[in-house]
Amino acid sequence: MEIIDGNQIAAAIVHELKAEVATLTGRQPCIALVRVGEDPASVSYVKKKQVMAAEIGIESRLILPPATIPQAELFALIDQLNADEGVDGILVQSPLPKGIDEVAVFRRIAAHKDVDGFHTLNLGKLAQEDDTGFVACTPAGIMELLRRSGVSLSGKHVVVLGRSLIVGKPAALLAVQRKAWANATVTICHSQTTNLPAITRQADVLIAAIGKAEFVTADMVKPGAIVIDVGVSRVPDATKKSGYRLTGDVHFPSVSPLCAKITPVPGGVGPMTVAMLMKNTVKARRLNQST
Ligand code: NAP
Questions:
Q1: Phi-psi region for residue 40, left (φ > 0), alpha (ψ -120 to 50) or beta?
Q2: Ligand 1 center to 265 CA (angstroms)
Q3: Would you say the CB of residue 170 lies under 6 angstroms from ligand 1?
Q4: 197 lines ligand 1 (CB under 6 A)
Q5: Nearest ligand 1 atom, CA 193
Q6: CB of 268 within 8 A of CB of 145?
Q7: Is 93 assigned a catalytic role?
Q8: What is the pTM of this model?
Q9: What's the rounded Cα separation, in Å, for the pair 204 and 186?
Q10: Domains and CATH numbers, the chain
């Protein structure tokens, strides 16, 4: 069994991006990080994004509207950032407070600044296999992890647990692309799927993205499978100073001995998500070279 080290692979991407940014002419790339409210997980994710951006040489602008911001005001803020020629990428950290329509927010961001890849146009380009768009960072990070770990999906059965816009659906669309490293046969499962363990046991590659702590147990995994654990849940743990620990959707102690390869939580998909956001921001800067 091999543990896929997301921190190490993300560090290699950071190194490559740093070299790429050094070759850019004109101003440095710039990402606007919009965090609405004080959700503790969002505070931590945005901080990680700021730190990685600084390491690469990407300027980040932190914008912190209160959780009470009306949707119309958030739209006006996004419109300003859309019009700002000094901003290449815009990220609005999810989850957003209740009462704000998340998908409407994703659509409001100009498609050419949508470094999160959730805009209708970018999702459409993904479906059309048009590489000029932006691919959502977590699914893109999963594919990069697999590629850089020497895994080809071609001809393999990939089972994706979860059908969200952010992870499940785009991950499935990437795995099924007509590309040498993709070409997988894909099954998507969700909360209404029946006989779930019978399906997951057929997976050569299992991507778990449901947000239920340690849901995937040993009886749901085929021996020799590759398991990508996307889930991040906080579970109470009295031995930790914080009172909790992070865990994935996979019960790591029982599943990992069975697998050919597996990602840990933390230290698997998480750092790759941030690295791919930076990659998209550098891509946006290149597309926006006139300023
Ligand atoms: P989401 O929008 O809540 O979607 C969860 C999906 O899982 C839904 O499609 C849901 O089905 C399905 N599901 C829920 N319970 C299920 C069950 N018992 N059996 C089968 N399917 C079930 O979540 P998300 O945004 O995709 O995120 C999923 C997890 O990944 C979360 O823990 C999140 O924190 C984590 N995440 C991590 C990263 C990272 O960088 N590491 C990035 C993004 C997300 P229905 O559609 O039928 O409701």
A1: alpha
A2: 15
A3: no
A4: no
A5: 20
A6: yes
A7: yes
A8: 0.97
A9: 10
A10: 25-120 (3.40.50.10860), 137-270 (3.40.50.720)
